């Protein structure tokens, strides 16, 4: 179908007949996301708000289907790369976001940390060096003022604003730490995502939401007791990249529900269902 025929098809989006409209929308959607640039051009050239709204809805449908496919492919991949998973989440709000752009930003943070990092000091001191770079030099901090804002779960926005929620700050911390060859992993603690440094010689914990505060297993024991929960392994041991992405999706559901944007919350639930696990503890933030 050439541009003239496509334009004629798009012009039918102004039809009041719902049956005709449905057929037109289905036909346009059948072309897949390759048609998005053309639709964006038609949106810019249209002065009809009804047609513009219907084009917006079609573009969103196409982008959402593309996102679901990327998520499925990521879930079925061998490495389930964490940064790629975070990028996929961010493309829900920012569909044109480049993964390479995120890699360059993380590489710059890694370089800043590498300049000051020491391999011949105690792990506590290595973590303190990383804390100094991230939280003092680069000014990353907890977004306590807008704790439930969806932007806190979008890694591009966290890298830009330097503010995030516990899990997004932990992800950035972990990505940089792992580039420095530190054995630092995420931990699914109830109501607070944290990190653990775990090697054959030692294990301790790091709270990226509190400027990299270092604490012990006993501190987690006390925290769990305060919540009146029974201690289980997942509260102390490293979780997988898939666990992290699931938890980020759950955070987004809470964020959109608090904003009253239930349509977006339902779409995020659809994405979560793609990587659902019956063993998922269902912890948030």
Structural write-up:
With 285 residues, the chain is α+β, with helices and mostly antiparallel strands. It is built from 12 helices and 6 strands. The protein has helices at residues 3-11, 18-29, 36-45, 49-76, 82-90, 99-116, 123-137, 155-161, 166-179, 217-226, 241-258, 262-274, and strands at 141-142, 163-164, 184-187, 194-198, 203-207, 213-215. The strands form 2 sheets. The protein has a 4-stranded antiparallel beta sheet with strand order 3-4-5-6. The chain has a two-stranded parallel sheet with strand order 1-2. Helix 3 (36-45) packs antiparallel against helix 4, helix 4 runs antiparallel to helix 5 (82-90) and helix 6 packs across helix 9. The longest helix is centred in the N-terminal third of the chain and has 28 residues, at 49-76.
Secondary structure elements and pairings:
Blueprint: H1 3-11, H2 18-29, H3 36-45, H4 49-76, H5 82-90, H6 99-116, H7 123-137, E1 141-142, H8 155-161, E2 163-164, H9 166-179, E3 184-187, E4 194-198, E5 203-207, E6 213-215, H10 217-226, H11 241-258, H12 262-274
Parallel strand pairs: 1-2
Antiparallel strand pairs: 3-4, 4-5, 5-6
């Amino acid at each position: 179908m050439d541009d003239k025929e496509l334009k004629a098809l798009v012009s039918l989006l102004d039809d009041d007949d719902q049956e005709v409209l449905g057929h037109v929308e289905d036909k346009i959607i059948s072309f897949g996301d390759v048609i998005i640039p053309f639709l964006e051009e038609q949106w810019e050239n249209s002065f009809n708000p009804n047609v513009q709204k219907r084009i917006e809805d079609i573009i969103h449908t196409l982008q959402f289907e593309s996102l679901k496919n990327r998520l499925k492919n990521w879930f079925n991949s061998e490495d389930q790369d964490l940064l790629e998973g975070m990028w996929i989440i961010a493309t829900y709000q920012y569909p044109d976001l480049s993964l390479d752009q995120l890699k360059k930003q993380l590489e710059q943070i890694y370089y800043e940390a590498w300049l000051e990092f020491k391999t011949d000091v105690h792990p506590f001191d290595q973590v303190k060096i990383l804390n100094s770079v991230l939280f003092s030099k680069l000014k990353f901090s907890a977004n306590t003022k807008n704790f439930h804002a969806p932007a806190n779960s979008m890694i591009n926005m966290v890298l830009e604003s330097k503010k995030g929620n516990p899990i997004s700050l932990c992800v950035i911390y972990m990505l940089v730490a792992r580039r420095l060859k530190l054995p630092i992993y995420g931990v699914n603690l109830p109501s607070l995502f944290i990190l653990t440094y775990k090697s054959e010689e030692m294990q301790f914990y790091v709270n990226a939401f509190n400027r990299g505060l270092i604490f012990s297993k006993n501190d987690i024991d006390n925290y769990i007791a305060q919540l009146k929960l029974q201690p289980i392994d997942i509260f102390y041991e490293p979780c997988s990249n898939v666990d992290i992405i699931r938890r980020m999706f759950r955070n987004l559901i809470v964020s959109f529900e608090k904003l009253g944007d239930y349509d977006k919350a339902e779409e995020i639930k659809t994405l979560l269902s793609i990587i659902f696990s019956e063993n998922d503890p269902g912890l948030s933030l």
